[in-house]
Every structure is written in structure tokens, then in C-alpha cells.
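Hey,
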Amino acid sequence: MSPAAPHLLDDASESALLTDAGPDLRAVFDAMAELVIVRGADGRLTDVNAAFIRAFGGERSDWTGAWFAVAPAFGEDGGARRYDVAMRTRAGPVWIEWSETPLPGGGAVATGRDVTEQREAALRQDERAKGKTTFFAAVTHELRTPLSGALGTARLLEDTDLAPDQAAYVTALTSSARHALALVDDILDLSRLEAGRLELRPEPVEPGRLVEEVCELLAEKAAEKGLTLAHAESADVPARIRADPARLKQILFNLAGNAVKFTEAGGVLISLETEKDGALRLSVRDTGPGISAADQSRLFEHFERGAAEKGSAPGAGLGLAMVKRLAEAMGGEVGVRSKPDEGALFWVRITPETVQRAPARRPLAGRRVLIATPCPIEAEALRLQAEALGAYAEACLDRDRIVAEARAAGAASVILDDVWADEAAAVRQAATVDRILALARPRTKARYADGERPAEIDGWLVAPVRANSLARFVLGQARGEEERAGPAALESLTLTGLAVLVAEDDPVNAMIARTVLTRLGADVTLVTNGAKAVDVASEGGVDAALLDLRMPEMDGREAARRIRDLPGPPGAIPIIALTANATEADRDACLAAGMDGFLPKPLDPAALSDVLTALCGRENRASLTG
């Protein structure tokens, strides 16, 4: 920028600000490394310092009275402000950060510093982050494809007649593949979080239901280790909040999964409560080995595993790092309290929008409940649940005290841990009780369901106990807890007569898709790229198309667009995406391409059957009308 022509002010009061201030202040002004400019009330320069002259050239007198229009207009508040401007100086183009403050009598003083290096460093860092995200996305996709094939093949083997040792091998294979897939997902999510590219999708969520689902997912693993897994929810927890359900579940599953993994005896308690300021607090407490203070200080960093350093369980230490970043992305925080040999308590605190407040109804108001179990965690969870439902609840941890405390409780419902179920007769004889319920485990519930329970027991609950189940049982509205909804048996599903086009270039995943669909009764046409899928669809006679997103010659999205452009019925067939990367970006891209559904690999028979049944009504099937 060349200096402007000098402009002499007629009003002596608007002469250079520092010229009249004396030589000492002028020397300080010129010794400053930052560029300094002073504007008058009319916006023209009244003074500049030596650093400014070195940067832009000319003499001080050349700039006095000139316009130097680099700043945006002041806002309505007229306060201090900061802005970056790309400028051409004697040294070449640079970015200058200006900090400008209004002066009491009008005008402003601004200091500028060269931030070119910082901006270029930030740009390089952003480019590296983009490159890393792209790299991780590509690598994780390449990893997920064979892992999905291994897991899908293992599922097919599970549906065949296997010898006991073969079944054990398949179970081990399935567990390893799932663990590897989870690790791949963690790596990809962390890369997105660090690059600021993980988008949250808030929607109405039932936090209590989410906790129950996580408990049920981990129940079998806890039972295998002989651990108690329980959950409790305070009465003031909102019925529905606005949050990202998948990410909230991911946080809780990581914390509870770690607790189960590192705890060898006792149990794990998941708690949900509302704090005084309205924040929602999720806590996971275990009776594991505890964590030293030194480990706690770096527990939420990448590849740090704290108590896991003893080598007690596999893992790369990514879960807690991701929990921390997900919580922060939700505007929350995470922490831990622990001492060696005293267990650990992990907590996450968020402040979501409340969609529906906690219900005012307390179905067990006025009821008394006695919980008799040797497990303190189970006792605490059931006591908190009963109290949240309005009951007065007590816990008994001593087998020798059960009868006495039942007698003292009066007309109460007694929940007996199934290891103490033989005390039911003594309780019934010595005390006046409403109901006696057995607290069974997933592996012991059969003795109650098959009619082998003691006559004095009125019903049974299965741990981890749902709050609704507890209320119904205490009120006498149920006898035996209903079975949890599990994976549908393959033989109970049917797609008989459905003509399905599958486009999949990976031979293992193609074999899995063909086998699953054939077992469900569908007729399958298999191709290896999108171009061939368009050709088959154009010939008609197809009820639905399953398209892999990434294929040679033509990917699934482009194939979907071309099928949609086909004239007549072929362009209207349901199209479902198949992908090893079940990301939101992939889902959005599929919908934008005109696809109707989205299924991750390996194919789950129940999910596949549900999607195809919903999209392919029998009256619309080409195989029936052709």
C-alpha cells in the first residue's frame, strides 16, 4: 500500500496525538514493535508510529490526515474490537490482527501485529486434520469390510449344527470380530472429534430407557463373570430430554463396559440423577481394583488404560478418551473418583433440554418393600428404584436377619435374592407380607419360569430389574418377568418369493448377503458393480435392490440415481444401501441419492427382513405381478 498524500488539518486540536505529548512518550510510541495508528473523530489518521512507517513506507507526515480504511464499521455498542486483515506491506502480503479501542473524545487507537505465521500454521493444522480424517475413513473402511465378512460368516455358522467345541470356536471368533469392529469405530470417531467434524443429532430421548438398554446389552457379560449389574434412577429425572441418543449410549456403554471388564467380584451400578442446577448426571460405580491418583491424571488421554495396565483385559485405551470428547461436544464434562482396591466411580454431567418432565405419578406410594440380597449394589439399586416409585424401601444384607426384618416391615413386599429363596417359607410363616418375589439372574430364571419355584414365592424378577417391572410385580400385576426382546430366530422370518438384486464387489460379503437372503426365502440376483446393477434393474422383475456404497466402475450412490431415472416401475423399486461404514455422512449421502434404507455390514437377518418387509408390500412385488 502506498502512502496517501499528506493532509494538513485546519484545527490545531486535531494535530498528531503524541507530537504535543513530549519526546519521551514519542520515543516509547516509536519503540513499540506493534503497528500503532490513531484516528480522529472523522476517521482520518492523526498519528502513526515508526513500526507502521517501516511496514508501509513514507514519512509520518505522509500519513497524517490520510484515510487508512482497513477496519469494519464500529458496532452499535461502540466497544473495543479485534479483526484480521490481509494487507500488502513493503515486505509483501501479510495478515495483520488489529486491536482497536475507541477514544473518549472520538476517534480510536489501534495496534496491529503480524499473524501470518499463526494463520498459516492453523491452516496447515486444519489441512492435516482433514487429511487424517480422510485417511482414517479410508483405512477403517478397508478394515471394516473383512471384519464384517468374518463376523457375518460366524453368524452363518452359528445357524448350523456344530459340535460343542466348534460352537465355542465360533463364539470366540464372533467376540474377537466384534471387539475389532468396535475398536475401528472408536478410532474413526476420535479422528472426527479431533477434527471437529463429528455432528451431533439431538432428538427426544428417554434417558431411563437408554440406561436400561445398556444394562441389558452388558447383562450376559456380567453374568459370565458372576457380577451383579444394576441400575437406578432418581424420581426427578426427566422422562424425555433432547440429546443425541447414539452418542449418549456410546458414552454410557463405554463407561459401563469398562466397569464390567475390570471388575472381577461384586458388581456395577449405573445411576441416573438430576442435580440441583438441573444438570443430568450419569454415574457408573464398580467394585473393581480401583485406580491410582497417577493413573487418574491421564486416564482420559489416548491409549491410557489406568487400571488396565495390569493386563487384566484387552483394549487400546480409546474408550475413555472418546467419552471425554463426546461429553465435551455435548457441552458437558466427565470425571472419576477412585482409590486403589476401593473400586471406581466414573461420572458424566450434561445439561440437555428437557422435553418431558418426570411423571408426578408414584405407583408404589404408601407401599413398603424389603430387599434381601447379599449384594450391596443390587440392594442399593432396588432400594433407589422403589423409592423413586414412591415406596418406603429397606435393604437386608444379612441372611440371618431376613425373617426379623420382614416381621418388622409388616405388610410389605419382600424381594428375595434367589440364593436366599429357601427363606421364603420362614418369611411367609413368621411375617404378614403382601408378596414374596424372587430376584433371579438370566441363568437362574428357568427354575422359576418352569414351575420349580417354591410355593411361597409369588413371582420373580430378572436382574437387571426395570423400574416398570418392579412396580407391576409389587402391585401384583405380573408373576414372571417377560422375556427381553432378543434377536429373532431365522426360521421365524420370511421373504418368500421376493426378488432381490444385490450389488456387492467383496466376495465374502456377497456370499453372506446371498446366503442370508436365500435362507429367508428370497430369490437373489448377484452382481459385482453398480453398472451391472443398473442393467439388471432396467430389465424389470426386481422387487428390491441392495447396493454396496463403494464398488468399482460405479458406486452405489450413482447406481441408485440411475435406477431412479429409469422409466416406469424399475425406477420405483426400493433401494437399500449396504456399507461397512455406518456413519451419519453415509446415511445422508444415501438419502440424497434417492435410497430408501440403510443397513450396515454384516447383514443382520432380522433387520434385513424388517426393512424389506416394510418397503416391499406383497401387492407391489414384481415377482407376483410379472
